[in-house]
Amino acid sequence: MTRSTAPERPAAPSRGGMTSTATPERPETAPRVPSQTAIALRGLWRSIVGGLRNAVRLSGQALGRVFGFAAPVTSVISPLGWIVLAGAVVAFALSRVFGWIEFGFVGATLAAALLVAVAFVFGRANFSVHIELNPHRVVAGERALGRMLVTNIAAKPSIPSRMELPVGGAVAEFVVPVLAPGAEHDELFAVPTHRRAVIVAGPAITVRGDQLGLLRRTVKWTDEVELFVHPVTARLAPSASGLVRDLEGEVTKTITNDDISFHALRSYEPGDALRNVHWRTSARTGQLMVRQFEETRRSQLTIVHTTDRDAYASEDEFELAISITASIGVQVVRDGTRMSIVSERMPLSTATPTSLLDDTSRLVETSGDHANLRDFARDATKRLPPPSVVMIVGGSQVPLADFRAAETVFGLDTQTIGFRAEFGAASRIAKVSGLTVVTIGAIGDLPRVMRRVRP
Question: What segment(s) does the record annotate as region Disordered (predicted)?
């Protein structure tokens, strides 16, 4: 068979006598007209979705109003009471559907227990309750006592009541007997203070309910009262034997145009203050000469205290590090030196020794806030005044290389000392590439070691 071929189309001559091959033009496609059915379906879908959203929103608002209206009743039912109520409903349903009389008796018993418990939540008392802690601030290990005074301020005798008082992580329960009008009843309780913490006592509440705990109605009578358990501190010598010095008037190597320590003369430049012109030298040399000064400053101490859990081998080591920071900080505040103390979650107040110790009582272990000690030191101190002395406090799990890396965050004229809390170890001082690292094994060793520190 022979294949037939279409006759070739002659090429049109182009300008200049050259020929070019012509390409056929594609016909233009007409714009697609949207279907009216699709438009109607999309509009219907939007209407349905909008209606469902409005229905859900209105249903949520209605349920919120219903629950808000029923809150005084539903709040009385304890979790155990909800379980008993659900069990009664399920038992009645099984008895109705399957005709099991036994489940009917079970449902009736559970429902009767709830009905009997209702009688125990009625009653009203009018008390004046006062909570006091003595003292409000103690050192870890010292004894602290609390007192709760209940006064019947009603015009008729009160009925016996059960009162609960949360103290730290525990709850103390007291029974308030029948009180005549104006009569008082007080209860004494001990507050555990063996660990540094902020212990919250209160609020005191009266509890009415049945012995099974199905229903429970509470009335709050007081606010919370805080007891600060301060860390154990060591008394240091004033100014830590020269470590934190008052540098008022001490000359630095920084040259400035306005200070009190004269350094040299230089030629006048536009913008220099005329009060710094040295007129005698200017008259002798024939050109204006101005004074230069060496900068003087007061010391600025910055304590960088890491609370990262990975930096400490034990909880005792964490507490020892806080005692180190608190001991140094309290003495520096007493000396009147400017100081800033930072941790991962909060800066510590340095206004007074008491406020500083209160903030150290709030410190807790953290995890994952920063990748390493250097990042923490950089982020925590970037908004603080340039320090003249930096103390970095951590645990035995902080490598010495991390102390060296954190030192690079600060200027060359900044003195840096690292403190490692290593519970039970021998206290010592070491030099690591010019960095002073102080290891403290017990807080009682801190005064002796600080006298030997020479940055």
Answer: 1-34
